[in-house]
């Protein structure tokens, strides 16, 4: 039985606890929040009457002595939570982003290394079924090596609250999902980025609700991202809309159920090479999906077997580097080189 303390009982914690309730061998033994009443309410909602409730993570960890900490706090508090978890010899699974700055990200990863604990990030777009299918299809070489990856993200939510006051709101709050999915699908590693942000006249955000970025993903692969938090009409999926161009064909995914590919065949039709549809195989039984549920299961397996989870911090820091590189480029107006961190 793995004993867990969850810290941060805001809205996102519901998704974590919903997933945790479906897993045999996992017990949430503590809930921590600056607002004790909010933690108590979350415990009642999920039938956690026996869980210890507190406002101090250290105190609850001392009392419960869990195996792991689930971190669902705001990014600015992530470093403090991580250091507390590792000081109590706990493994750590954290909500995205890994940290609120490159320096804090590196500090958390180093602390996990020194403690010898498993550290992973809930980067749940990797656990979408079609993202898995795309990666396997491209790895098969059916349309050759990917050369150009294009993603559009146009959604216009009225969140209210802190997001509408954030700087770099699209890049910092949402874009890492798309950036990480791009890295994963084409097995790319970021080398550089040029990015521009702007605020449309119709925007209800303080700053950075719209952005366009061009990344060099190495191996002659270029990734373009165009996104907006305030584009009314023709809304994309939360997963974005994708076109991946490869050496011998292309793949398109609308972010919903529309996944299709074409491959070049012999002959020409006027100026153009002939193409024909090619099937993208169904999900492989070995692929773990289901968002938070899949990631928590992956994390638990890593703890139990002494292996590394797919969304380990030492890998995820490279997706986070894409975010901070894009922000630096937007602020400076120049192309930014992205240093690859430890794997």
Give me a quick take on this structure.
33% of the residues lie in helices and 26% in strands. The protein has 343 residues and is α/β, with parallel strands linked by helices.
Report on the architecture of this protein.
By secondary structure, this protein is an alpha/beta fold. It has two domains: 116 residues, 3-Layer(aba) Sandwich (Rossmann fold), CATH 3.40.50.720; 177 residues, 2-Layer Sandwich (Dihydrodipicolinate Reductase, domain 2). It is built from ten helices and 15 strands. Strands 14-13-12-11-7-10-9-8-15 form a nine-stranded mixed beta sheet. β9 and β10 form a beta hairpin. α4 packs parallel to α5 and α8 crosses α10. The longest helix has 20 residues. The mean pLDDT is 95. InterPro entries: Gfo/Idh/MocA-like_OxRdtase_N, Gfo/Idh/MocA_Oxidoreductases, GFO_IDH_MocA-like_dom, NAD(P)-bd_dom_sf. This is Gfo/Idh/MocA family oxidoreductase. It comes from Mesorhizobium australafricanum. It holds the Pfam family GFO_IDH_MocA_C3.
Compile the SSE list and pairings.
Layout: E1 2-7, H1 13-20, E2 26-32, H2 36-45, E3 52-54, H3 57-64, E4 68-71, H4 78-87, E5 91-95, H5 102-115, E6 119-122, H6 129-139, E7 146-154, H7 169-173, H8 175-186, E8 192-198, E9 210-216, E10 222-228, E11 241-246, E12 249-253, E13 259-269, E14 272-278, H9 291-305, H10 313-332, E15 336-337
Parallel strand pairs: 1-2, 1-4, 2-3, 4-5, 5-6, 7-10
Antiparallel strand pairs: 7-11, 8-9, 8-15, 9-10, 11-12, 12-13, 13-14
Helix pairs in contact: 4-5, 5-10, 6-8, 8-10
């Amino acid at each position: 039985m793995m004993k867990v303390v969850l810290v941060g009982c805001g809205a996102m914690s519901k998704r974590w606890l919903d997933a945790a309730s479906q897993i045999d061998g996992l017990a949430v033994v503590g809930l921590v929040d600056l607002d004790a009443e909010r933690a108590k309410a979350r415990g009642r909602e999920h039938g956690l009457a026996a869980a210890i409730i507190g406002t101090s993570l250290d105190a609850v960890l001392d009392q419960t002595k869990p195996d792991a900490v689930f971190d669902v706090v705001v990014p600015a508090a992530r470093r403090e939570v991580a250091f507390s978890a590792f000081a109590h010899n706990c493994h750590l699974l954290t909500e995205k982003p890994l940290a609120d700055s490159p320096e804090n990200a590196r500090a958390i990863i180093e602390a996990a290394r020194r403690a010898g604990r498993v550290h992973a990030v809930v980067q749940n777009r990797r656990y979408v079924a079609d993202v898995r299918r795309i990666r396997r299809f491209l790895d098969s070489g059916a349309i050759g090596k990917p050369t150009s990856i294009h993603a559009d993200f146009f959604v216009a939510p009225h969140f209210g609250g802190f997001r509408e006051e954030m700087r770099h709101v699209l890049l910092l709050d949402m874009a890492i999902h798309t950036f990480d999915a791009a890295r994963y699908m084409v097995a790319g590693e970021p080398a550089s980025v040029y990015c521009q942000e702007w605020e449309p006249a119709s925007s209800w955000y303080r700053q950075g609700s719209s952005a366009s970025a061009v990344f060099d993903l190495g191996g002659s692969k270029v990734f373009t991202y165009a996104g907006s938090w305030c584009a009314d009409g023709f809304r994309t999926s939360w997963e974005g809309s994708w076109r991946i161009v490869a050496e011998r064909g292309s793949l398109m995914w609308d972010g919903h159920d529309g996944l299709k590919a074409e491959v070049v065949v012999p002959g020409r039709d006027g100026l153009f090479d002939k193409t024909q549809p090619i099937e993208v195989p169904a999900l492989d039984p070995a692929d773990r999906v289901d968002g938070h549920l899949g990631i928590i299961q992956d994390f638990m397996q890593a703890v139990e077997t002494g292996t590394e989870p797919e969304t380990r911090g030492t890998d995820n820091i490279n997706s986070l580097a894409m975010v901070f590189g894009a922000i630096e480029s937007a602020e400076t107006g120049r192309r930014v080189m992205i240093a690859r961190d430890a794997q």
